[in-house]
Amino acid sequence: MSFDYRTLRTQAKDYVMIVVGLALYSFGFTAFILPEKVVIGGVAGLASLIYFGSEQFIGYGIPIALSNYLINIALLAAAFRIVGKQFVIRTIFGTTVLSGLISLMQPLFTAPLVQQQSFMNVIIGGILCGAGIGTTFVHNGSSGGTDIVAAMVSKRTNVSIGRTILYTDFLIISSSFLLFHSIDKIVYGFIILFFISQMSDMIINTNRQAVQFTIFSSKWQEIADAINEEAHRGCTLLHGTGWYTKQDVKMLIVMCRKIEQINIFRIIKEIDPGAFIAQTHVNGVYGNGFDEMKVKIKRKKKSPDATADNPGEEHEKVITKD
Description:
The chain has helices at residues 5-33, 42-57, 64-83, 85-105, 118-138, 146-156, 161-174, 177-180, 183-208, 220-231, 261-271; strands spanning 210-216, 235-242, 247-257, 276-282, 298-302, 314-318. It is α+β, with helices and mostly antiparallel strands and 322 residues long.
């Protein structure tokens, strides 16, 4: 039985980065947001409502980590068929790690790290939480909660993850008024939500940005082989004519992620330092090895009102999935 060490290494890196992202989220939540008694969105927000509510009414706050874990498991059970087995496995891993980190960090931060600076605390907390969520999603993980809802939506539509979280969490934050009767707390919650959505989108979109290289070199074959073998990216060979020299030239077209461009440059420089290179940033690359196209499909359907004079007349109907 043979093992694919490259796949194993990639998966190990993903799980390590998921833990890093969840640690960022947990630190931002427990050290800056929770001590200010501000309710954020998602399951963490619901768990906060349960914690503060139980503390007010029964004198004992139900642990946030426990509520967070149980609600996430229930959401995963409902979303299992939509998001797939691999996503569920990684989300169970992420939810378990997140709940464990929150339970460890919460007792350490009984007061905000920045004293008497509530506005600064919510901004720092929102940035850290957003960076954590973005890092987790980039490496195919999830912290659970509204991330599960966002993942389901992103499977079917082009709605961004940050925007989906924004819509889903609006009601959760607003409901904190029932506990604290404070508009300030709600405003702080929305500020945190804004920074979380912006930071998560920024990190995710930065990772998805692509670059196109057009390479002119007499050593085109060596460069193409090296890009295939070392960068694990495909190359397309185009034949052209240099109009000044009137000689045939070979051009390589390479698509790669923005974060891979330095590696491509190094490969070219090692083989042919004098190569002529044109680099272009592209908005999106779709297909094998890149992003999946998610578009609304138009289908043609015969109209029931078609007359005998126009039996072949067809009317276009847009069919979309909710």
